[in-house]
Amino acid sequence: MRVGVHINRFNHPAGAPALGAELAAAGAAAEAAGVSWLSVMDHYFQMEFNGGAEDPMLEAYTTLSFLAAHTETVQLGALVTGVTYRHPGLLAKIATTLDVLSGGRATLGIGAAWYDREHEGLGVPFPPLAERFERLEETLRICLQMWDPAANGPFEGTHYRLAETLCVPAPVSSPHPEIMIGGSGEKKTLRLVARYGDACNLFATSPEEVTHKLDVLRGHCDTEGRDYDEIRKTVAYTGDPATEGDLEAFTWDITGYGKLGIDTVILAPRVGAPAEWIESFVAPAVERLAELD
How far, rounded to the nearest angstrom, does the alpha carbon of residue 142 sit from its chain's CA centroid? Predict the structure, then answer.
C-alpha cells in the first residue's frame, strides 16, 4: 500500500509570507519520504470543521502548479474539484496545463461539490444536488472529448454546450490525465466511477464499510462492462493516530484495509506547517505500509 499526503491547512504560524517556502519544503519532504501522491483541497473558503471560512485558503490549481515546479515524481491533484467551480471546458484546459508542465503527473480529482457557503459567498451558482450530478457527468464527458485529439467538435448537453472541444497542447499523460472521482454515494457517484473513473477515493471509515462500497463499485462495473481491477482504489484517512504522530496506532488502524485492494492511503493532517510532519511521521509510515501483505 502506498502513501499520499493531502495538504488541507494553510494557517502557517508565520502567516501568508511563509506559505511558499513551506509548500516547497513539503513537496521536497514528500518526495524524499517516497510519497506517491500530493494533493490540496479545492475550495474558496476553508471548511467549517477545519478552521472555518475566515482561515486562510489558497486556490487549488495555482497551488498545484507551484508544487509541480518544486517536485519531480509525485502525482498531483485536487481532492477533489467541485464540478460547479469552473466551466468544464476551462477545467479540462487547466488540468491539461498542469499535466503538461508537470511532465504527466496530473490527476483530475472531481466530485459533485457540497460547500454552499463558499458558493453563496462569492456569487457562484449552486444548483440542487441532482443537477450537480448531471453537470458532473457532462463534465466528465467533455473532459474525455477534449482529451481525444480525434474528437474535436461540438458538445451538446443539457447544461453545457461547446462549439469546439479543441485542447492544444494535448496532455502528456497517456491516454489522458487520470480521472479520480471522489465520494462514496452508491447510486450515482460509484456508478460514475465505474463508467468514467480511473480511480476512486473513499473515506477510511472502517474496513467493513469500505468493503461494502467496493462491492457496490464492483456491481456497477459489471453493469457497465468495466474491468473492476482497472480502477485504482484510494482512501482518505483522517484518524487521530496520524494527526498525533502515533505510528504504531496508525499501522494497527490501517492494517485492515491492506487486503481490500487499496492502492493508496491518503493522510490529511490538520497542520499549517506540514513539512516537518511529513519528515517525522509520513516517512516511516511509507516504510511500514510498504511491508503490509
Answer: 19
Task: Give the containing element (helix H, strand E) for 61.
Answer: helix 60-69
70: which residues sit within 8 A by CB, 6+ positions away?
23, 24, 27, 28
The count of C-alpha atoms lying within 13 angstroms of the C-alpha of 91, restricted to the half-sphere facing its C-beta, is 30
Per-residue model confidence (pLDDT) at position 259:
87
Q: What φ, ψ does residue 165 adopt, rounded to 5°?
A: -125, 45
Set of cell numbers at residue 54 = 475566515
Confidence of residue 242 (pLDDT cuts 50, 70, 90): confident
Query: H or E element: which one contains 38?
Result: strand 37-40
Phi and psi of 187, rounded to 5°?
A: -85, -35
- Amino acid residing at 197: G
How far are the Cα atoms of 17, 98, 164, 220, 237 from residue 107, in angstroms, in the given order? 28, 9, 23, 22, 19
Contacts of 52 by beta carbon, 8 Å cutoff, 6+ apart: 46
Q: How far apart are alpha carbons 67 and 63 in whole angstroms? A: 6
217 grid coordinates = 463499485
- Statement: residue 110 has pLDDT above 70: yes
Whole-model pTM?
A: 0.95
Spatial distance between the Cα atoms of 88 and 102, rounded to a whole number of angstroms: 21
Take residue 229 and report the three cell numbers written for it.
Answer: 481491477
Pairing of strands 75-78, 81-82: unpaired
* Residues 184-196 pLDDT 10s: 999 999 999 999 9
Return all residues near 153 (Cβ < 8 A) that are at least 6 apart. Answer: 145, 164, 165
Q: What is the pLDDT of residues 244-266, one digit of tens each?
A: 889 999 999 998 898 899 999 99
**DSSP-derived 3-state class of residue 242:** helix
